[in-house]
Design goal:
235 residues; Rossmann fold; 9-stranded mixed sheet; two-stranded antiparallel ribbon; 24% strand; globular
C-alpha cells in the first residue's frame, strides 16, 4: 500500500518542506495541506511542522490552534490517526488540548540551536515504534519557547502512565520540567516534541556522528515508525 502523510502549512511555517522531504525519504507519499482548509485529503497520518505560525503572537501556536483545519485534526486524532507535532507543531497540539501542558520561553531567555541528545522513554507509539525504550538518539533542536511546563499532578500522571515520549539527555537546553522533550497521548497516536526529526533523515545533512560529519539519521525512525503503524493497522 502507498502510505500518504499530510504536512500542514500555516503562515510562518518554516519546516513544512523539510517534513515533506522526510516523509518521502522514509518511503511514504507527502501530501501538502493548507491551514485554511477543512479537507485532510484522506491522508493516513499528519505532521504539524515547525516554524513561527502567525509570528508567535499571543502564545506560540495559540492562533494556529484555532485554524479551520484543526477541527479536522482533532476529530482525526480522536479516531486514532497518527499525528506528530514538531516544535511549533507541538505548541499547537498543547494549545489545542490534544496534549497536556504548555511551552514557555526558554529559561535562559535565548534562542537555542544545537544537536540534542534525547532518550527514548516510550517506544510504543505510532511515531516511536522503530526505536527501543532507553535508546539514545541525536536530533537537531532550535527554539526560543521550548520550556515544557505542566502542573505537578499532570507531570506525575505523565510519568506514571508512561506518556513521556522523549527526555533531554546530557543537558536540559531550555528548562523543561523533568527534562521532558516530548510527550504522547494515552492512545499513542499523538506525539509532540520540540526537537526536529525532519532535520536528521538524510546522510550529509544531519547531526555529526562518530562515523562522519553530518551523517546522523536518527530522525528517520519517526517517519518509518508511522509507516509501520499504518501498515500494521491496515493489515
Amino acid at each position: 500500500m502507498t502510505v500518504r502523510i499530510g504536512v500542514i502549512t500555516w503562515p510562518g511555517s518554516l519546516d513544512d518542506r523539510d517534513a515533506q522531504r522526510a516523509v518521502r525519504l522514509a518511503g511514504a507519499e507527502p501530501v501538502a495541506l493548507w491551514h485554511g482548509s477543512h479537507d485532510l485529503d484522506g491522508v493516513d497520518a499528519l505532521v504539524l511542522p515547525g516554524g513561527f505560525s502567525y509570528g508567535d503572537y499571543l502564545r506560540s501556536g495559540a492562533i494556529a490552534a484555532l485554524s479551520p483545519i484543526m477541527t479536522e485534526v482533532k476529530e482525526a486524532a480522536a479516531n486514532g490517526l497518527p499525528v506528530l507535532g514538531i516544535c511549533n507543531g507541538f505548541q499547537m497540539l498543547v494549545e489545542a488540548h490534544l496534549l497536556p501542558g504548555g511551552l514557555i520561553r526558554n529559561d535562559h531567555q535565548h534562542f537555542v540551536r544545537r544537536d540534542q541528545k534525547l532518550t527514548v522513554e516510550n517506544s510504543d507509539t505510532a511515531w516511536t515504534n522503530q526505536f527501543k525504550t532507553g535508546q539514545e538518539i541525536v536530533i537537531p533542536l532550535k527554539n526560543g519557547e521550548g520550556g515544557y511546563i505542566a502542573s505537578e499532578e499532570t507531570l506525575d500522571r505523565l510519568e506514571g502512565e508512561g506518556l513521556v515520549a522523549f527526555r533531554y539527555a546530557g543537558l536540559n537546553p531550555n528548562g523543561s520540567l523533568r527534562d521532558i522533550a516530548g510527550i504522547t497521548n494515552e492512545a499513542g497516536n499523538v506525539v509532540g516534541l520540540m526537537p526536529h526529526p525532519e532535520h536528521a533523515t538524510e546522510p550529509g545533512f544531519g547531526p555529526d556522528t562518530s562515523a562522519a560529519m553530518r551523517s546522523g539519521t536518527d530522525g528517520l525512525g519517526f517517519f518509518t515508525s508511522a509507516i509501520s503503524a499504518i501498515v500494521r493497522v491496515a493489515a
